[in-house]
Amino acid sequence: MHLTTFADLGLRTLMILGDLDEGQRMTISDLATSINASANHVAKVNARLVELGWVTAVRGRNGGVYLADGTRQASVGKILRQLEGPGEVVDCEGGAPCPLVYRGCALRHRLADAREAFFAELDGDTIGDLIAKTPPAGSGGKETLRPLGLPHVPGRSSATA
């Protein structure tokens, strides 16, 4: 199972916002910098998170975004189901439709079951659990930022990646 960039950014956003002190807000620009993503992508993700009720946005000079009440207790699986949407693991009916789709291909159904099992496994963790299990910034963990979607290459710093 591979998460969409949208869902990945959504989870990163919730974890970063969950690490803020009570009453603190974060601008989209600062949030984008902290999760190493473009401000445009982060703005779209935050619009959806606000729509779903996981994040609260405040407009204006002292505005920003912060976790909505109850988000820390939300299951990661539930949030991912909402961010990923109802799509399938493979596109059986896309540009070059698979001829097996019309025969009730078992693979399509098994992949749907596997996708749900993936989400179900994450139902046991909440956003608060993930935040609590993640060492705070500056605690000695490796904090090398790299562009989203690119694997870490040992021996290369993020400045040269």
List keywords for this structure.
disordered C terminus, single chain, Arc Repressor Mutant, subunit A, two-stranded antiparallel ribbon
Q: Topology, please?
A:
Blueprint: H1 5-18, H2 28-34, H3 39-52, E1 55-58, E2 64-67, H4 76-84, H5 106-122, H6 127-133
Antiparallel strand pairs: 1-2
- Mean pLDDT, nearest integer? 83
Strand arrangement in the largest pleated sheet = 1-2
Extended strand count: 2
Q: Termini distance?
A: 26 Å
CATH topology-level name of the domain at 5-88 and 125-133: Arc Repressor Mutant, subunit A
Could you say which overall geometry the principal axes of the C-alpha atoms support? elongated
Please describe the biggest sheet, giving its number of strands, its sense, and whether it closes into a barrel: 2 strands, antiparallel
* CATH level 1 class label of the domain at 5-88 and 125-133: Mainly Alpha
**Assembly status:** single chain
Counted by DSSP, the helix tally is: 6
Low-pLDDT regions: 144-153, 155-161
CATH superfamily of the domain at 5-88 and 125-133: Winged helix-like DNA-binding domain superfamily/Winged helix DNA-binding domain
Question: What proportion of the residues form beta strands (DSSP E)?
Answer: under 5%
Give structural notes.
With 161 residues, this protein is mostly helical. It has a domain at 5-88 and 125-133: Arc Repressor Mutant, subunit A, CATH 1.10.10.10. It contains 6 helices and 2 strands. It has helices spanning 5-18, 28-34, 39-52, 76-84, 106-122, 127-133; strands at residues 55-58, 64-67. A two-stranded antiparallel ribbon has the order 1-2. A hairpin with a 5-residue loop joins strand 1 (55-58) and strand 2. Helix 1 packs across helix 3. It starts with a helix and ends in a 28-residue tail after the last helix. The model is unreliable at 144-153 and 155-161 (pLDDT under 50). It comes from Candidatus Corynebacterium gallistercoris. One of its GO terms (molecular function) is DNA-binding transcription factor activity. One of its GO terms (cellular component) is cytosol. This is Rrf2 family transcriptional regulator. Residues 134-161 are annotated as: Disordered.
